[in-house]
Amino acid sequence: MPELPDLPLSGVRIVDFSRVLAGPFCTALLSDLGADVIKVEPPGGDDYRSVGPFAEGESGLFAAMNRNKRSIVIDLKTVAGRELAQTLCAGADVVVENFRPGVADKLGIGYAQLAERNPALVYASVSGFGQTGPESHRPAYDIILQAMCGLMDATGSVGGSPTLIGESVSDVVSGLFASWGVLAALLSREKTGKGTHVDVSMFDATLSLSATLVARFAATGIAPRRVGNRHPSSAPFGAFRAEDGFYVVAVLNNKLFDSFARAIGEPQLTSDPRYANDASRCLHEAELRACVEAWSSQRSVAEVNRILGAAGIPVAPIRNVQQALESEQAAFRGLLTEVPRANGLAGPELRLPSQPVKFSAYAGNRVTAAPRLGEHTVEILHAFGLDAARIAGLRMQGVFGRDADAADSAPFAQSDALNEETGRA
């Protein structure tokens, strides 16, 4: 294992068979905290290597989701490749995969097979619908999960069409839950010495993410309806128009409403029975909104924020992602880090994200560039005790692909090695 900084997960070795987003995001979060992540790729590489946007020929999405990792190419369709993968897993603390249920078993890297040789192994499977259930063998994309879990139905304008959330939230939250599950399993292993199989379903994770939607349904038995850019049970709480853009406010109680009414020059609103409490304000939200926007539409977003902020009202401008990441707060918190490109490649430095949690006992997260395809194959195999002759023999058997010598020079090739077996999770 290479020398790593002293971080919470230093000394933890992870073998990562996952591709695209949910699984790689899980292992990226763990690698940020010092885990040594060995990314096992098919000869054509992770599909995300060929998905834009690109900068200097490299996929920005792949770079972000595979930071800090080491790449080894193994063709799991070969017998020798499967045996080599099993050797790596025997020396690992954690294995992460996002094949469709049953595929890992066929490839010789299922939990039961690996745990027999390594009983302390923590093995995380991320799939669309989990390892069990009537939908378990369906492949899944983020949009499929947003549709099936109620997120799209609950998002959008009143009377409008269901709306896709502007982020791959099902993928991301599944990766987050997977990292959480891995950490819980590692903690348990410290006490019991036993590993476990962590089963993460994107379906389950997406519904768990929808905490308030689920809570409302559980309490009422009625599916929440689309309410647009407002709160379903509070007002004024949502997005409002100013002269040159939009802003949001969050008024949740009568004390705040009194301050808000005075700040916009309408103190009489507090004595209007339509706005006597949160429930009645919500019922008459349209009339209240018209009054608020009659005031704010004559002022800039900056002026609205200055006035309401001075009155103690929770208020904010609506920014785009660029504005958020280039803000003073984001810079101070170090949400993007500039790092050199992998293996000394030319070009401007990369800007990469990292996990957001700060630890008082440790320095900042590790942030290094994502690996080139197969960049660390020989290095990793040497660390596992394979000498040059053994590695040459594996190369002759096609374990590193049909054109293994060219692997490093074609890091962005489209993957087709396992597409028919993996599906998408």
Automatic annotation (TrEMBL):
The keyword Transferase belongs to this UniProt entry's keyword annotation: yes
Q: Does the keyword Transferase apply?
A: yes
InterPro entries noted in UniProt = CoA-transferase_III_domain (IPR050483), CoA-Trfase_fam_III (IPR003673), CoA-Trfase_III_dom3_sf (IPR044855), CoA-Trfase_III_dom_1_sf (IPR023606)
Please give the Gene Ontology molecular function terms for this protein.
CoA-transferase activity
Q: Which domain of life is it from?
A: Bacteria
Keywords of this protein's UniProt record, alphabetized? Transferase
Name of the protein this chain belongs to: CoA transferase
